[in-house]
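Need residues for this backbone.
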């Protein structure tokens, strides 16, 4: 090489960068949880956390000192939040609530089950091993995030984020101290690589699913939705120096993350089977039950679907017609403001029905598990339409793995 020739810039995300993230946890939450376990305060914390669910509430007087310091330190949103963009994200969610829930339920969630390390981790606790509870918690969390007062006094989002962060730390504590986890092979449980990967799955993979379904999204709306998940990443203890800042960066991270981690596992098959049974229970009657696996297969692709042992059927063709149906509905929506209002209202009601069915009308409470399962397994016409960022070189190399 010529002495005056400069080397091309190193990509922000490569195997070395993600290897480093795989060794890192969340120091603040980890130290808090370790202190409470050392003092045997977890039971008291779980009892008292039920009385702290709204921003502005006074912390319970008997809250363990370590927990009180943690809740006070994490009570504010990041100073860099652009509230105008967050409002755009809220409006995007209101306009696409049913589509976003579909992307979460039929694409992002199954995709995480095709990551063996995550499936083993989700199988390790009594609460997280049941997809209905996980989906209910996720749906409720997103609903809290997208409310008008999500960061104001009286909201439920910040306390929910604080509790989820502690829950992650508790799972890390159990897996590392109980001999259930091969740190040398799999890195830190719920590591920074996976924490950031989770935000990516619930943002860009949901947008990808909506695009595949033919949903029209503006570039501003898609950017704002992703921005909201960057705020979530901060609230859940992600290393923001490593979190993608744009959808283009998110595509680079997503491609590399999935290429490194996707694969088959018995835990993933079991978890996804439970997930499909849950969705079939939500859909009234049994006539349309085959559309559940067909829709998942359509959105995640044949390779991942085969790893998860999702059955093939004649309904696979019907699932491919969903974008046509949605396109007709969007044409109707564009034809009249009344039609637009009616369809948006119907979508909002559908999303609310799905959440109510999953939660059975109850508020889902996050609790720190006192112990893990005894066995580490699971028993049986618009303008500016958003277009996904193109796949990176890593993604192109691994395209056959995800499709």
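Answer:
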């Amino acid at each position: 090489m010529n002495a005056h020739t400069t080397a091309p810039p190193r990509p922000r995300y490569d195997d070395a960068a993600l290897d480093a993230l795989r060794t890192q946890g969340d120091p603040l939450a980890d130290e808090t949880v370790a202190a409470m376990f050392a003092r045997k305060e977890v039971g008291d914390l779980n009892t008292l956390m039920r009385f702290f669910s709204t921003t502005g509430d006074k912390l319970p007087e008997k809250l363990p000192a370590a927990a009180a310091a943690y809740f006070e330190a994490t009570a504010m949103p990041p100073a860099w939040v652009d509230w105008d963009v967050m409002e755009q994200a809220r409006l995007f969610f209101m306009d696409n609530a049913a589509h976003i829930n579909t992307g979460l339920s039929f694409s992002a969630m199954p995709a995480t089950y095709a990551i063996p390390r995550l499936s083993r981790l989700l199988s390790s606790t009594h609460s997280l091993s049941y997809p209905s509870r996980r989906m209910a918690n996720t749906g409720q969390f997103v609903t809290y995030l997208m409310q008008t007062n999500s960061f104001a006094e009286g909201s439920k989002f910040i306390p929910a984020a604080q509790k989820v962060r502690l829950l992650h730390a508790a799972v890390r504590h159990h897996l590392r101290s109980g001999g259930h986890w091969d740190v040398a092979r799999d890195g830190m449980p719920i590591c920074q690589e996976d924490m950031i990967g989770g935000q990516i799955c619930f943002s860009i993979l949901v947008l990808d699913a909506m695009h595949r379904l033919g949903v029209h999204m503006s570039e501003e709306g898609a950017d704002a939705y992703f921005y909201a998940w960057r705020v979530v990443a901060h609230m859940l203890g992600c290393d923001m120096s490593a979190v993608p800042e744009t959808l283009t960066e998110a595509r680079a991270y997503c491609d590399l993350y999935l290429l490194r981690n996707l694969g088959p596992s018995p835990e993933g098959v079991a978890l996804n089977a439970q997930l499909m049974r849950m969705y079939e229970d939500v859909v009234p009657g049994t006539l349309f039950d085959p559309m559940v696996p067909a829709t998942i297969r359509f959105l995640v692709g044949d390779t991942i679907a085969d790893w998860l042992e999702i059955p093939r059927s004649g309904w696979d063709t019907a699932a491919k017609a969903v974008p046509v149906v949605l396109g007709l509905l969007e044409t109707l929506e564009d034809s009249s403001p009344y039609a637009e209002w009616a369809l948006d209202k119907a979508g909002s009601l559908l999303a609310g029905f799905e959440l109510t069915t999953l939660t059975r009308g109850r508020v889902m409470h996050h609790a720190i598990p006192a112990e893990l399962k005894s066995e580490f397994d699971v028993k049986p016409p618009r303008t500016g339409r958003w277009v996904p960022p193109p796949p990176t070189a890593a993604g192109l190399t691994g395209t056959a793995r995800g499709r």
